[in-house]
Amino acid sequence: MPAPNVHYDVLSPVHFLLRSAMVFPDKVAVVYGDRRRTYSEFLERVYRLAGALQKMGIGKGDKVAYICPNTPPMLEAHYAVPLLGAVLVSVNIRLSANEVAYIIDHSDAKAVFVDNEFADLVAPMRDRLPQVSHFVNICDVSDATLLPGPAYEALLAEQAPTPVPLAVEDELEVITINYTSGTTGLPKGVMYQHRGAYLNAIGEQLEFGTTAHSVYLWTLPMFHCNGWCFTWGITAMGATHVCLRKVVPEEIFRIIAAEGVTHLCAAPTILIGMSAYATEHTIRLDHRLEIMTAGAPPAPTVIQNMEGIGANITQTYGLTEVYGPHSVCQWQRKWDHLPDEEKAQLKARQGVPYIVAHHMDVVDPLTMAPVPRDGKTMGEIVMRGNNVMLGYYKDPKATETAFEGGWFHSGDLAVMHPDNYAQIMDRKKDIIISGGENISTVEVENVIFRHPDVMEVAVIPVPDPKWGEVPKAFVLPKPGRQPDAQEIIAFCKQHLARFKAPKYVAFGELPKTATGKIQKYKLREQEWKGHERRVN
Questions:
Q1: d(Cα 418, Cα 239) in Å, to the nearest integer?
Q2: pLDDT surpasses 70 at 504
Q3: Longest dimension (CA), the chain
Q4: pLDDT > 90 fraction of the chain, expressed in percent and rounded
């Protein structure tokens, strides 16, 4: 290792644990069920895991895959793996066996750690993974499949908690690879670097207002953008991580009360479920709960409902390619006394760049010129800065396309308001062009969300012989409610220009990703089968 530099140090989020273990050695760092571990115990376990990985031959640049829900081993991996200069590959636990095998193989993972509830995803695919030299079983549930290899706790018990120095010499070294959902083809491996992860983790805490007294509940998957970098950020503050294996409203509210949870992150679909459960069981929070939401534009109604039970919602926006959130709907005191509905409308905007992000704009994607700040002219959201990915792993062509013009292209269509706050109107592939008129599916969804019988909604373009395409709404009613199609259409015509109202309405469950995003591409595939457009 080079000699220390008096005016420079490598920015790596691994440093956060070393600092918090020094400052808060006896403070509870991790809670999981009835287990509690202090920061000094957390660090000792990370050292044990790092030592075990070294014995496996894992070192700088090697890939280590984890298939694990939001339990302590997943959190420990976020420190032990990058401590060695190795690369953590967090795999979505809700993918199919074929998708999991593709990610393990494509990432060149040498070791795979598997929670035994999900071992059946890996077991039949082992013959397709010749580069994997070690499997480790995280035995968190009983009567589940085990892979050939040691149990996680036994592996740690065999190691001494000997301190391991950080092996990273260049802060632009890869720290993690996060695979996209692959909605338009094979998933792409998004490469994060130590510097970007460090800065984004700090940025999240600045925007969310966490402190050493905060208690953070893991309702957001750690495998999704490394938990928006909260895996590192909560540790940086010396706050408490509360791990949660399964995200269901009843358990969320129980733990909020039992552990005094102050902060959590969640996609809008989780908030919808929490709101419905709270309404059904007349729940009102007895302390302020800060919630950060992103992943899809939340309807103002969802925000208003959650704030009605005592939460405060912060809307953020980003993508896997920018470490999770990149912008925040920064609240301003001058809005405090506005009516609740108007506040919810403001909070539904995607806002302004993070303090650590700086650069975000809405531009004409052909000329790259910024659109007028009029709240009407649509363009594409583009971003650049420290928290933009290094690129796609082993995919230079896709990387070049994503970075065209010196910006990362989000694929999201938005307007820029006169106060410089951005607001998403649609994905490029979702915008409806009906008879030459642009219709924002998000605008239509926000109206339908206001209908008292609607739980969830997705709007997509469907083929039409006269107009080319028209809106169709897919609605999941609230339990016990039975709205009909004409009722929904008439409601939209009351609150929208008539041509924007859906021509068709279907009822039932909506397909979702593991992080709660509605998979509109699946709806488009079924509606456009046999037609020339709109498959992707």
A1: 37
A2: yes
A3: 73
A4: 77
CA distance 312 to 139: 37
219 Cβ contact partners less than 8 Å away, ≥ 6 residues apart = 244, 247, 252, 264, 265, 266, 270
pLDDT of residue 536: 46
Who contacts 384 (Cβ-Cβ below 8 Å, separation ≥6)? 359, 406, 407, 408
Sign, CA torsion 494/497/502/503 = positive
Q: For residue 265, what are the β-bridge partners?
A: 292
Angle in degrees, 0-180, between the axes of helices 14-23 and 194-208, rounded to the nearest 10: 50
The SS3 assignment for 20 reads: helix
What distance in Å separates the CA atoms of residue 419 and residue 124, rounded to the nearest whole number?
A: 55
Q: Are strands 324-328 and 352-353 parallel, antiparallel or unpaired?
A: antiparallel
| Per-residue tokens: 150 | 């040691």
pLDDT per position as a tens digit, 162-206: 999 999 999 999 999 999 865 456 789 999 999 999 999 999 999
What distance in Å separates the CA atoms of residue 198 and residue 97, rounded to the nearest whole number?
Answer: 32
Give the pLDDT confidence of 427-473 residue by residue, as tens digits: 777 888 887 677 888 889 989 999 999 999 999 999 988 888 899 99
Q: Tell me, what's the pLDDT at 535?
A: 44
Mean pLDDT of the chain: 92
pLDDT digits (tens, 9 = 90+) for 44-81: 999 999 999 999 999 999 999 999 999 999 999 999 99
Cα distance between residue 217 and residue 263, in whole Å: 6
Q: What is the pLDDT of residue 435?
A: 75
Choose among 95, 140, 142: nearest CA to 113. 140
First to last CA, the chain: 48
| Cβ contacts of 6 within 8 Å, gap of 6 or more | none
Give the tokens for residue 525. Answer: 């595939």
Q: 412 with 383: CB under 8 angstroms?
A: no
Give the span between the Cα atoms of 139 and 528, in whole angstroms: 44
Tell me the mean pLDDT in the region 314-319.
Answer: 92
- C-beta atoms surrounding 378 within 10 Å: 18
Residue partners of 32: CB distance under 8 A and separation at least 6 = 71, 72, 242, 243
Q: In terms of DSSP H, where are the helices of 403-535?
A: 441-449, 485-495, 520-528
Residues contacting residue 328 through CB under 8 Å, at least 6 positions apart: 207, 314, 315, 316, 317, 351, 352, 354
CA distances from 36 to 31, 48, 49, 93, 289 (A): 5, 18, 18, 25, 22
* Alpha carbon distance 89, 267 (integer Å): 22
The count of C-alpha atoms lying within 13 angstroms of the C-alpha of 341, restricted to the half-sphere facing its C-beta, is: 3
Q: Which residue type, as a one-letter code, is found at position 522?
A: K
Whether 224 contacts 294, CB under 8 Å: no
